[in-house]
């Protein structure tokens, strides 16, 4: 059977795409507005046509003429109007126009399936008002929609990352969401085979120095002869002094008063638990004051490669561009391993 064709409308570096590709899908085209990130996507997906444009300016009808039949549309459009304040804004609110473009694309391409990803509170804000509006919007196009929040940690990803998904089908089937597979991956199992470098150290490329000691490490290494993007941020002297005072398994609560900071972020100046999972990886994981990103035993924060491992990107996936862009690419992505679970649901429905 020919592989199903996917379009990734808000691709980022390609976490959703990567998950679908791993299950045998073919990504025909991806749209990404950020120039550096779209270049990184392109270099990792040579068989996909990458469109580096603002989706608001793209003629979707012409796009359909160019690419023809698309079986699955995926993406995570930003929805600024879906605030936690619970104000009753319409999906037609100007701030949610990017979301409306996703619906427009589904209307024009008429894919068999779609996967829309977003923040968890899109399902609960205003007593589910937005959730119902979104489902109604797709129902009016003839799609049956299921919506649920999934946590990546339930599917072997070493991270507490919750995301909302709307899963739609054209054939009238209410597609189920994947059930947790009871695979738990710890930080130690995810990154301890990587070179133990100190603050300010690292190289663009390392050969594997240690053998893989966990199933997860073996999966991450598949198809790669070494690792890229493993360079540690050079922390300031005061930051290094502060980190040296924090023992394994502890956080800022052990710091003397003069080292207590007023950072508002959860997990700041605290070490990751090597036998636990990470908090949500964000776009500033190189800074101890931005969240729970300090290495379990080394006096530094995570490297791009370590964060990518925690996001379940395989080692053969490289991140290009400036360091801040690489962190944005990793931090904003859907974990590929989670995306693969959703792709598998569609695959199973196709083959029933």
Account of the 3D structure:
The protein is an alpha/beta fold. It is built from eleven helices and nine strands. The mean pLDDT is 93. It catalyses: a 2'-deoxycytidine in DNA + S-adenosyl-L-methionine = a 5-methyl-2'-deoxycytidine in DNA + S-adenosyl-L-homocysteine + H(+).
Provide a compact summary of the structure.
It is built from 11 helices and 9 strands. It is α/β, with parallel strands linked by helices.
List the topology elements.
Elements: E1 5-8, H1 15-21, E2 26-31, H2 35-44, E3 49-51, H3 60-67, E4 72-75, H4 97-109, E5 113-118, H5 125-139, E6 144-151, E7 162-169, H6 187-191, E8 202-207, H7 215-221, E9 226-231, H8 237-244, H9 304-310, H10 323-331, H11 336-350
Parallel strand pairs: 1-2, 1-4, 2-3, 4-5
Antiparallel strand pairs: 5-7, 6-7, 8-9
Helix pairs in contact: 1-11
Feature tags:
DNA Methylase, Chain A, domain 2, 11 helices, Rossmann fold, EC 2.1.1.37, transferase, 7-stranded mixed beta sheet, 2 domains, two-stranded antiparallel sheet
Which second-level CATH architecture of the largest domain applies?
3-Layer(aba) Sandwich
Topology pattern, helix = H, strand = E: EHEHEHEHEHEEHEHEHHHH
Q: According to CATH, what is the class of the largest domain?
A: Alpha Beta
Arrangement of strands in the largest sheet: 3-2-1-4-5-7-6
Radius of gyration: 21 Å
CATH topology of the largest domain: Rossmann fold
Strand proportion, as a percent range, falls in 5-15%
Count up the helices. Answer: 11
Number of distinct beta strands: 9
Q: CATH homologous superfamily of the largest domain - what is it?
A: Vaccinia Virus protein VP39
> What would you call the shape?
globular
Helix fraction?
A: 25-40%
Main β-sheet description? 7 strands, mixed
- Unreliable segments of 5+ consecutive residues: none
Structural class call reads alpha/beta
- What is the CA-CA span between the terminal residues? 13 Å
Family: Belongs to the class I-like SAM-binding methyltransferase superfamily. C5-methyltransferase family.
Active site: 79
Catalytic activity: a 2'-deoxycytidine in DNA + S-adenosyl-L-methionine = a 5-methyl-2'-deoxycytidine in DNA + S-adenosyl-L-homocysteine + H(+)
Enzyme class: transferase
């Amino acid at each position: 059977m020919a592989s199903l064709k996917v379009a990734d409308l808000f691709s980022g570096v390609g976490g959703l795409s990567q998950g679908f590709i791993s299950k045998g899908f073919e990504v025909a085209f991806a749209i990404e507005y950020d120039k550096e990130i779209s270049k990184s996507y392109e270099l990792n997906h040579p068989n996909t046509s990458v469109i580096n444009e603002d989706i608001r300016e793209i003629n979707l009808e012409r796009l359909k003429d160019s690419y023809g039949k698309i079986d699955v549309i995926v993406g995570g459009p930003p929805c600024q109007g879906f605030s936690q304040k619970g104000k009753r804004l319409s999906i037609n609110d100007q701030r949610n126009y990017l979301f409306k473009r996703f619906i427009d694309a589904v209307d024009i391409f008429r894919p068999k399936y779609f996967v829309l990803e977003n923040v968890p509170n899109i399902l609960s804000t205003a007593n589910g008002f937005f959730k119902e509006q979104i489902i109604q919007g797709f129902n009016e196009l003839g799609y049956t929609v299921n919506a649920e929040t999934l946590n990546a940690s339930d599917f072997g990803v070493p991270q507490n990352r919750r995301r909302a998904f709307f899963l739609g089908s054209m054939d009238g089937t209410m597609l189920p969401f994947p059930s947790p597979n009871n695979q738990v991956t710890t930080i130690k199992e995810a990154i301890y085979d990587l070179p133990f470098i100190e603050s300010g150290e690292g190289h663009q490329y390392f050969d594997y120095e240690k053998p893989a000691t966990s199933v997860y490490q073996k999966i991450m290494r598949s198809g790669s002869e070494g690792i890229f993007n493993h360079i540690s941020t050079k922390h300031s002297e005061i930051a290094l002094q502060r980190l040296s005072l924090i023992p394994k398994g502890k956080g800022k609560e052990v710091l003397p008063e003069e080292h207590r900071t007023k950072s508002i972020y959860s997990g700041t100046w605290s070490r990751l638990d090597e036998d636990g999972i990470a908090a949500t990886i964000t776009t500033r994981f190189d800074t101890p004051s931005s969240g729970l990103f300090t290495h379990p035993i080394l006096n530094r924060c995570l490297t791009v490669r370590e964060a990518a491992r925690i996001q379940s990107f395989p080692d053969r996936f490289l991140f290009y561009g400036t360091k801040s862009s690489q962190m944005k690419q990793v931090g904003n992505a859907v974990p590929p391993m989670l995306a693969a679970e959703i792709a598998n649901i569609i695959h199973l429905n196709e083959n029933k």
